[in-house]
Amino acid sequence: MVEHRKTLTKSPTWLLQFGQRLEHARGQMGLTQSDLAGAELSKSFVSLLETARSYPSVETLLLLAKRAGASPGSLLLESADLQLDAALSLLTLASNSVWRRPAWARGLLDTVKELLPDMPLRIRAETAFLRGLTFAADGHLKEAEQQAEVSRRAAEQARFGPSIARASALSGHLLMLRRDFRKAMAQFGDAVGKFRASGSLRSEFGIRTLLWLGSTSIQTGRVRYARGVYEQARRLAARLGLRTLEGRALWGLGHHAWVEGDLTKAARLLLEAKSVFEESEDLAELGEVMRNLGRLLREQGKVDAARDALDHAVRVANQVGNLRMRSAAYEEMARVWVQRGDLERAEEAVGHAGRLARSAGDRLHRGRVLTIEGVIAARRGDRPKARRLLGQAVRVLGRVGAKDEAAEVSRDLALLRGPATSSEADHYVAQALGSTAPRSMRKRAPRRPTRSRRPRK
Question: What is the CB-side half-sphere exposure of residue 438 using CA atoms within 13 A?
Fold first, then answer.
């Protein structure tokens, strides 16, 4: 049921105008008050709105505008104060929806633009920042980068430190998604400095930036530094009561323990993070942490426990409807079935993962799917097919910047070519690494020696 406000004894002018516009829009659509109310509201409440004896919440306003075939802005025009208040409420609602419902959040931001065509610089910076996050969540990185630049320029013109810090953090996030971890780490370090200077590190996006900094620190080999960053993020999130971010910090500390080789501690921390996400009902984070837990258990050799965790991850991913999350969950499940030797179920799971990765346009997961398909082909003894699939995986992973994964697949590919020498393995690794490989690794693999012929008599 959509929440609404109490009945008023005296109606302000803007509310009278809102009621008249709502009634007019309803008449234009040929709707009764009951039609407009639907299942979420009551006919009497619609009557109160149209006679200016009650006023709607932001959620109710969006619902009524959609049903009446009008925009929220067209129902709220002529009062600058009201427009600004509504725009700020919509910004808050969009901010809370960025990660779970990015497309819906963009719709709210479009309404903000309609309400405030000449919006103040601070609001312009915040709107562009949130829009950039929604594009990043949907995998549209070029559009996200454009919004990050708009946000940065507006924030700098307004000389508003917290917005400058958020725009800097968004740029780092996009570098991380492009797997340029060294540049991302430097960008996050700069953003954290800006958050501190503006006194806004103790905020949702300040803490989220610390978490991103911790992740890129691990990716660039600064593992000890990452632990300190995650601990700081955990303390700040706990003080502010931001349970989801506290769960993310626990997850990061679990990842740190995993990299350090303490798998028991890593599993304990991931289970703590799982409990936090269940408590906060954050399904997106819950699905991801269950997938990580499944992978950890698989690496520990606890295959049945890993399967149970990944079953949970698949159910949550299906419930959330995120294509990338579903693809990753099925991909990890396929690895479990390969480890158990059940190649038919592995093929079924990797088939699901491949279709979802293609639908999402996610080349990284497509490369991982090709890797698993190559491993399955090798297990079945089809070496030509395995070589072809692993070769495709190397190319795809190399193009998206997953060079460590590409190098690992390249070594497997070299071994499938026959009795491989270390030079041959290095040749395939160099193919994956490209120009970043040492010069000694970039040379062509040596040809097999040919038989020397005796000179004719």
Answer: 3
Let me know: does 427 contact 414? Beta carbons within 8 Å: yes
φ, ψ of residue 134 to 5 degrees: the values are -65, -40
Residue 318 sits in which domain range?
282-361
Same domain, 339 and 374: no
User: How many domains does one find in the chain?
Assistant: 2
Residue 141 lies in a domain: no
Residues 286 and 357 in one domain: yes
- Secondary structure (3-state) at 160: coil
CA neighbours closer than 13 Å in the CB half-sphere of residue 168: 23
At 239 the pLDDT is 93
Q: Is residue 307 part of a domain?
A: yes
Q: What is the DSSP string of 216-230?
A: HHHHTT-HHHHHHHH
Q: Is residue 401 part of a domain?
A: yes
What pLDDT is stored for residue 435 in this prediction? 36
Query: How high is the pLDDT of residue 10?
Result: 56
Q: 119: which 2 tokens?
A: 């919006």
Q: In this structure, are 380 and 351 located in the same domain?
A: no
CA distance 290 to 315: 10
Contact 127, 115 (CB under 8 A): no
Per-block mean pLDDT, blocks of 10 residues, the chain (457 long): 50 76 85 88 88 80 85 66 73 86 89 85 94 90 95 95 96 93 96 94 94 95 95 95 94 94 94 93 89 92 92 88 86 93 94 90 89 92 91 88 83 68 46 41 40 42
Look at residue 454 in the predicted model and tell me its pLDDT.
44
pLDDT of residue 11: 61
Residue 339 sits in the same domain as residue 379: no
CATH code of the domain covering residue 335: 1.25.40.10
CB 282 within 8 Å of CB 247: yes
Q: Where are the alpha helices (DSSP H) in 300-419?
A: 303-320, 323-340, 343-360, 363-379, 383-399, 403-416
Other C-beta atoms lying within 10 Å of the C-beta of residue 37: 21
Q: Are 126 and 91 spatial neighbours (Cβ–Cβ below 8 Å)?
A: yes
Give the model's pLDDT for residue 343.
94
Distance (Å, whole) CA 52 – CA 46: 10
Q: How far apart are CA 422 and CA 427, in angstroms?
A: 9
Q: Do 373 and 433 share a domain, yes or no?
A: yes
> Is residue 121 packed enough to be buried (19+ CB in 10 Å), middle (13-18) or exposed (0-12)?
middle
Global confidence as pTM: 0.70
